[in-house]
Amino acid sequence: MSEDNEDTEREKRQAAAWRGAGRMLSRSLRDATVAELLAPLAEAPYDMDRPADLYGDGVVAELERRVAGLLGTEDAAFFPSGTMAQQVALRCWAGRTGNPVVALHPMSHPERWEGGALSAVAGLRAAHATTEARQPTAEEVAGLAEPFGTLMLELPLRDAGFVLPTWEELEALVGAAREREAVVHFDGARLWESTVHFGRPLAEIAGLADSVYVSFYKSLGGLSGAALAGPRAFVEETRVWRHRYGGRIFRQFPQALAALAGLERELPRLPSYVEQARRVAAALGPAFAEAGIPWSRVHPEPPHTHQFQVWLPYDPDRLTEASVRVAQETGRVLFRRWFPAPVPGLSVTEVEVTEPGLTWTGTEVAEAVAAFAARL
User: Fold this and answer.
1) What does the DSSP assignment read for 217-254?
2) Could you give the number of structural domains in the chain?
3) How many other CB atoms are there within 10 angstroms of residue 113's CB atom?
4) Which of 203, 232, 265 lies at the terminal end of a domain, its last residue?
5) Same domain, 86 and 182
6) What is the CA 243 to chain-centroid distance, rounded?
7) Alpha-carbon distance 90 to 149, whole Å?
8) What is the mean pLDDT of the chain?
């Protein structure tokens, strides 16, 4: 069997184990069937007897109005992907400021996961206030050696552990950008669940920035899609560029209905997910020690959102195999795939807590850790 076939069979085995388990902290986006994805659409808060959308009207326009209202902005535009939304936003701000330099973290989504599109497609250039796995400080932004037109902050910074600044640090970061005569854009793919950490409503958080991007599937359980929110004239300009980028789609009612359903169902529940994630995280450290695992790290501790990292001193394939066996043999999913950590000899995984994990107790977490450790 070729190496590619072995990888495919391994992935199928992993997916089957996790999909077949009865207890988990969260459903994976990969687990859902077509029927499961279609079911919430009929429950969306929208009149199904109205005509379907055409090029962004109807239910898509209703979603845009809802998002603008939640974020307290003048307008919002639906985009088929967050990658497109952010590239358009940063391109538009560069045109308005006359400066193609974007200050952003090297671990942010445009730098890591978009194939160099900022420079290759939009002709923009990145500047990094810090390379450390954390949010930048106001002092670092103020001290950037070259002028920049836009400061982009990913809230939370996913690849660093879903980390957020404090509210005071965020205000200072925005203030530092203003002192440099730059605009501020929030990559808020997961901004929805950041209200607990900041202790502020969505509109107050978004109000610090000139523009905000939010995702409809990463926390809200939608099918796909994103929105850009901000001043009306700016959002209208992004709609022009959306068309140029190929994002003016004939019909998008499934994505819009799924997003409306997510805003109705998941958005109010996100604070409870964050609180439960903190309880799960607090139980993990003592459970690892009790199970005889020599070293562990939960990051950040406590979690800033309902997602966080776990680090352990084992090979990632060994940890993933233990995770699969726990699912197969106990019917519980505590962890899924593991990956090499930036530090040699360590591995890292991401833990997410949503509705399925709300009933987990500290005792159940400890039992799942013991089962996991026994299979290492």
Assistant:
1) STTT--SS-EEEEE-HHHHHHHHHHHHHTT---S--HH
2) 2
3) 12
4) 265
5) yes
6) 25
7) 9
8) 96
Whole-number pLDDT of residue 31: 84
Q: Is the pTM of this model over 0.90?
A: yes
Beta bridge partners of 79: 226
Which stretches in the chain have pLDDT values below 70?
A: 1-6
> CA nearest 211: which of 79, 345, 29?
79
Q: What is the pLDDT of residue 43?
A: 86
Decide: residue 193, CB within 10 A, 0-12 exposed, 13-18 middle, 19+ buried: buried
The tokens for 84 are: 């497109």
Tell me which residue range forms the domain holding 14.
3-29+269-374
Cα–Cα distance, 368 to 336 (Å, whole number): 13
Alpha helices in the chain (DSSP H): 3-19, 34-38, 59-71, 82-97, 109-112, 117-120, 138-142, 167-179, 195-198, 202-206, 232-244, 253-265, 270-290, 316-330, 362-374
Beta bridge partners of 297: 311
What's the distance, Cα to Cα, between the start and end of the chain in Å? 26
Whole-number pLDDT of residue 1: 52
45: its two tokens: 């808060």
* 358 exposure class (CB count in 10 Å sphere: 0-12, 13-18, 19+): middle
Q: Do 236 and 109 share a structural domain?
A: yes
- Which residue shows structure tokens 């959306």? 242
